[in-house]
């Protein structure tokens, strides 16, 4: 078997992996071949698993659960020695609501916001959350509805005219 054929033969489908994570299938890791187990990348589970489409509360839950159970102390657990443990931790994330769609969250490569909100709004959130990087601000603006963002701005004492200007999409 050529090197190229081997790559194709053992490539895991991320949607299948995430579906098993959502179903809390704790036996899934053991059902994989040794080569497939090597390909199971916890980092990808963190990236894909931390985002879901749907209700903002559910989105927040997944983000917080993945951060607490998989991301926190990620490098303390050797990926080679404890891959099964990492899989078992991943299965604890799902609240048992069935298989959900997990969109990919791209990395911070681009400085431009993908939300389409004005620079003024993004800069305001950067001032409010100085420890957040661009990707965190984008995620914050993505998981909250326009109404929630407007309410936050209003609660912070910003007048309606300024809110309207800040909420303009580019």
Report the helical percentage: 55-70%
Order of helices and strands: HHHHHHHHHHH
Uncertain ranges? none
What is the molecular shape? Answer: elongated
Query: Which structural class do you get from the secondary structure elements?
Result: mainly alpha
Care to count the β-strands? 0
Give the domain tally.
Answer: 2
The pLDDT mean sits at: 84
Largest sheet: none
Straight-line N-to-C gap: 51 Å
Q: What is the rounded Rg?
A: 19 Å
Quick tags:
56% helix; elongated; 170 residues; mainly alpha; 0% strand; 2 domains
Write up what this structure looks like.
The protein is built from eleven helices and no strands. The protein has helices at residues 3-9, 14-22, 28-31, 34-39, 42-49, 56-71, 83-91, 119-128, 134-143, 146-155, 160-166. The longest helix has 16 residues, at 56-71. The relative contact order is 0.12. The mean pLDDT is 84.
Outline of the structure:
The chain has eleven helices and no strands. It is mostly helical.
Task: Summarize the helices and strands and which ones pair or pack.
Elements lengths: L2 H7 L4 H9 L5 H4 L2 H6 L2 H8 L6 H16 L11 H9 L27 H10 L5 H10 L2 H10 L4 H7 L4
């Amino acid at each position: 078997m050529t090197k190229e054929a081997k790559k194709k033969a053992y490539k895991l489908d991320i949607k299948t992996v995430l579906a098993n994570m959502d179903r809390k299938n704790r036996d899934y890791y053991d059902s994989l071949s040794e080569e497939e187990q090597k390909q199971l990348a916890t980092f990808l589970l963190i990236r894909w698993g931390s985002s879901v489409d749907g209700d903002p509360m559910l989105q927040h839950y997944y983000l917080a659960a993945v951060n607490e159970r998989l991301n926190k102390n990620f490098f303390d657990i050797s990926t080679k020695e404890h891959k099964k443990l990492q899989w078992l931790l991943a299965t604890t994330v799902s609240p048992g609501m069935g298989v959900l769609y997990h969109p990919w969250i791209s990395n911070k490569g681009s400085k431009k916001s993908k939300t389409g909100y004005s620079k003024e709004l993004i800069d305001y959130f950067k001032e409010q959350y100085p420890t957040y990087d661009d990707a965190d601000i984008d995620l914050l603006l993505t998981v909250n509805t326009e109404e929630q963002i407007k309410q936050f701005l209003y609660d912070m004492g910003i007048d309606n005219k300024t809110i309207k200007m800040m909420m303009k999409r580019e």
